[in-house]
Every structure is written in structure tokens, then in C-alpha cells.
Specification:
The chain has about 450 residues and is of the alpha+beta class. The protein has three domains: about 260 residues, Spore Coat Polysaccharide Biosynthesis Protein SpsA, Chain A; about 60 residues, no CATH class; about 120 residues, Jelly Rolls (Sandwich), CATH 2.60.120.10. Helix content is about 20%, strand content about 35%. The strands form eight sheets. Strands 20-21-22-29-24-27 form a six-stranded antiparallel β-sheet. A five-stranded mixed beta barrel has the order 8-11-9-10-12. Helix 3 crosses helix 6. The radius of gyration is 25 Å and the shape is globular.
Length: about 450
């Protein structure tokens, strides 16, 4: 069975830690068995390895998340990268074409789709493995997993099964209909009729989605579909496929499952009440503090609060009210102030717009030992780097030199540059120019071996 993990979307419900570049699945606020902090995507990937599913898994994601996934999963995961965000149907269609034309899977093989961030026990993924059998046995077009509800929630969609036939001994049920986010009273009635929470996990034979692509006249070849990706409709898999599918079964899962999509649900699963620099007074009950800045935060005499502090902003909210944050921050259109990259991280320290259309942006950049920034140049900005920690190798205009704390490097627009950290390195970068945007970058070489080979070839000429 092939497994496709969907990792998309931007983060607003967990603002200010989540943003357009760092969605909720990348926040390191959970604890692993060694009491080290881990993200939801790291937790899920380790669980997949525990049950033997990681090797057959790919992650479908957007370009903005590639570096963060590589960084957090140590380049272990195979990625399918969308050229632009469309919705779940185009993403799943692209994944199916990849499995079919690149991995050369048989049309009879089963493909399972699931979100990259469920909070579950390993038993859940053992249940996911059962979907392969269910698809083959039932001969249904789609097989879903439905979670046995523990309370009448209005936050989830519901799968309503058809009435069970007494003679059937199968552990799966035919699906009658779906109900999306009913009232609590309606949810209670649905539960009485054996309805299940829809956790977004389903499976199908590869032939099913490939045949849909063929019927619509779209390529089944991965490279060709990539080129036409912008023409695919922005529509969810539910609307485009599930609602038009007649033969659907559901496999119940009676175990732990939770959507950690809001601050109040996320804090329920955190192993500590405080992350980062700060103090919570003893008379403050039910308070969680997450602080990503180097300044201390103190909470006194408060109850049931989430206090989240990052370079993007500060949130102080009653936990029950925290889901409303998405409504309020929708108006914010600021650039992300913190991002993880394949080589480390950066944090924006200051941004100033001067006269004559000039801008100044100051970053603190961390590069992990053994990692490197690409050999690159910029068209619209000059940069000044001041090394404050660690040692490394710098390539500037095809010349290699060693750098250490205290060194200052001036890089004019159009000059080629790259750096590799020998030990964990940090430097302050001051950008000045007319367009200080992440897109102002021309990458010449990504890997350090290729950069060194280029430098040597230039010397020989």
C-alpha cells in the first residue's frame, strides 16, 4: 500500500507561532518519550516508522514547506511538491500520477490518503494498514476510517453508515451519507445512529483516481501534470470525488484520535506548561506559556490562559476563546518573521522603510554544523554579514575563505556568495535595497560539493 500524507495550508488558528510559512504541524510543542520537544509531523513520521509504513509514504506539500519538512525529518521523506496551492483534489491527483508514472505502481495497488498531523496512538496507523484489505475485500471505490465519537462535537464532520445487515461479518460498513459540522444536538442524534467522526483518512485503488484524470482529459504522467497544474480546478477531493462516489465503505476506529487545530486542544496534549523564557506564578491555574523570544514573559494571578509569543506577534487569550483568533488575524498581511530552512533558521529582527524607496531588513541567521546556504546572488539588494558564532567556509565571487566570529562580509547586489558552517554558526545579516523579498534570489548551486567543484574549475582556468 502507498501512503500519501497531505501537508498544506497556512496557519492562522495557532497564531502567532503559525504563519504562512510555518503551519501548525511544524510547531515543536509536543514531548516525545525522551521528553524532548517535537512537532506533529515529527511525531507522525516516527509513528509511521514504528508500524512499518514510512518507506511506502510520500508527503504532498507546497514549495513554502519543503525546507521545513527536510529540516524536521532529516531528508528522510519523499516529497511531491505542488507548484502552487490549489486544494486537496489537485494535490491527490498529482500524488496519484507520481505513484503511477514515477514509482510505476500497478493500477490495482491501494493508495491511502491522510493528513500529516493527527494526534493518535500507534494503533491508529495499524488500522490504516487495514484499509488495503478493506478496499480489496469490499471492492468499494473508496474506503474511509471513521472514529468512534466520544462526545457530540459540532467541530467535526460525520460519516453516517447504512443500517447493518445481521448476516454481514465484515468489520467495515457501507456509507449512507455525510454530515458536515452539525449542531451539538444534531450530533447527539447522529451518534445514536452509529455515526462516526470523519478524520480525513481514506483509500482507493490507484485505478480509480487515474481513471478520473483520464475522463477529464488530464495527463496521468507526473511531469506533464506538473506543467498543467495551474489549470486544475481549486476544489477539494470531497466535493470533486467523494460526493460523486456511490460505493463507499467505512472502517471504524475505536481508539484515541484528536485534531490539535486550536490552542485549547493543543495545550491539552502538551507535556509542559512553559516553553521558553518566562515565569508562571503558583496562583495561576491552567496557564500555558510558549515564548520564542529572548525576553522573559511573566504571568501573575491568571487562569485558563494561553500566552504565545513569537517574532510574528503576541497572543494573550482565554483558552475557550482562542479558536476565534483566526477571525482576527485574517487582516494581518505581514511577512513571516521566523522560518525554518533545510540549513537552519532565520529570525527577522527589524524592518525599516527609508526615503527614496529604500528598505532595510535585519535578520539573525543560524546555520547548523555541516549545512550550507546555496551559492546565490541577488538583483535588488546589498547584504552585510557579521559572524557572531561558530566557524565556517565562505565563497564570495568564486573565492573560498574561512570566517569566524567578528568577521564582516560585504556582499553587493549581483555578487555570488555561499557559506557552510563547520560548527553551529550564527550571523547578523543586514539587507538594503529597493525590493527586500525572499523571491529576489538566483540559486547557482545547492550542494557544497558542487560549489567547491565550481571554485576549483574557476581556479584552473
Amino acid at each position: 500500500m502507498n501512503l500519501v500524507l497531505l501537508s498544506g495550508g497556512s496557519g492562522k488558528r495557532l497564531w502567532p507561532l503559525s504563519n504562512d510559512a510555518r503551519s501548525k504541524q511544524f510547531l515543536k510543542v509536543l514531548e516525545d518519550k525522551n521528553e524532548s520537544l517535537e512537532s506533529m509531523v515529527q511525531r507522525v513520521w516516527n509513528q509511521l516508522k514504528n508500524v512499518g509504513l514510512a518507506e511506502s509514504s510520500v508527503i504532498a506539500t507546497s514549495k513554502s514547506q519543503v525546507d521545513m519538512i527536510h529540516s524536521q525529518l532529516s531528508n528522510e521523506a519523499d516529497l511531491i511538491v505542488e507548484p502552487m496551492r490549489r486544494d486537496t483534489f489537485p494535490a491527490i491527483a498529482l500524488a496519484a500520477s507520481y505513484i503511477y508514472s514515477v514509482k510505476k505502481a500497478s493500477l490495482d495497488e491501494v493508495v491511502a490518503i491522510l493528513p500529516v498531523d493527527p494526534y493518535v496512538d500507534d494503533a491508529f496507523f495499524n488500522r490504516v494498514k487495514e484499509l488495503e484489505r478493506v478496499v480489496q475485500e469490499s471492492e468499494a471505490q473508496l474506503a474511509l476510517i471513521g472514529v468512534t465519537p466520544t462526545y457530540p462535537s459540532s467541530k467535526y464532520g460525520y460519516i453516517v453508515p447504512a443500517e447493518e445487515k445481521e448476516e454481514s461479518k465484515a468489520d467495515y460498513l457501507s456509507v449512507n451519507r455525510f454530515t458536515e459540522k452539525p449542531s451539538e444536538a444534531a450530533a447527539a442524534d447522529l451518534i445514536k445512529n452509529n455515526a462516526l467522526w470523519n478524520c480525513g483518512v481514506f483509500a482507493f485503488k490507484l485505478e480509480y483516481v487515474i481513471s478520473i484524470l483520464e475522463a477529464k482529459g488530464w495527463p496521468t504522467d507526473y511531469e506533464k501534470l506538473l506543467k498543467q497544474y495551474s489549470t486544475l480546478p481549486k476544489i477539494s477531493f470531497d466535493y470533486e470525488v467523494v460526493e460523486k462516489t456511490k460505493d463507499i465503505v467505512v472502517l471504524p476506529y475505536d481508539g484515541y484520535w484528536k485534531d490539535l487545530g486550536t490552542w485549547n486542544t493543543l495545550t491539552e496534549e502538551m507535556g509542559t506548561v512553559k516553553i521558553g523564557k518566562g515565569v508562571i506564578s503558583e496562583d495561576s491555574e491552567g496557564v500555558h506559556l510558549i515564548n520564542e523570544l529572548d525576553i522573559p514573559v511573566t504571568v501573575l494571578g491568571a487562569s485558563n490562559l494561553i500566552v504565545a509569543v513569537s517574532p510574528d506577534g503576541i497572543l494573550v487569550s482565554d483558552k475557550e476563546s482562542s479558536p476565534r483568533i483566526k477571525e482576527l488575524v485574517g487582516e494581518f498581511d505581514n511577512r513571516p518573521m521566523y522560518e525554518e530552512r533545510r540549513w537552519g533558521w532565520y529570525r527577522v529582527l527589524d524592518y525599516t522603510k527609508l526615503e527614496e524607496e529604500k528598505e532595510v531588513l535585519t535578520k539573525r541567521i543560524g546555520v547548523a554544523a555541516g549545512k550550507n546556504l546555496s551559492y546565490q546572488l541577488h538583483d535588488y539588494r546589498d547584504e552585510v554579514w557579521t559572524i557572531i558564532k561558530g566557524e565556517g567556509e565562505l565563497v564570495l565571487n568564486d573565492r573560498l575563505q574561512m570566517v569566524k566570529p567578528g568577521d564582516v562580509i560585504k556582499i553587493a547586489a549581483g555578487e555570488k556568495h555561499a557559506i557552510k558552517a563547520i560548527s553551529d554558526m550564527e550571523f547578523i545579516e543586514v539587507q538594503t535595497g529597493s525590493q527586500l523579498i525572499e523571491e529576489d534570489i538566483v540559486r547557482l548551486y545547492m550542494e557544497w560539493d558542487a560549489i567547491q567543484e565550481h571554485v576549483l574549475s574557476v581556479k584552473e582556468v
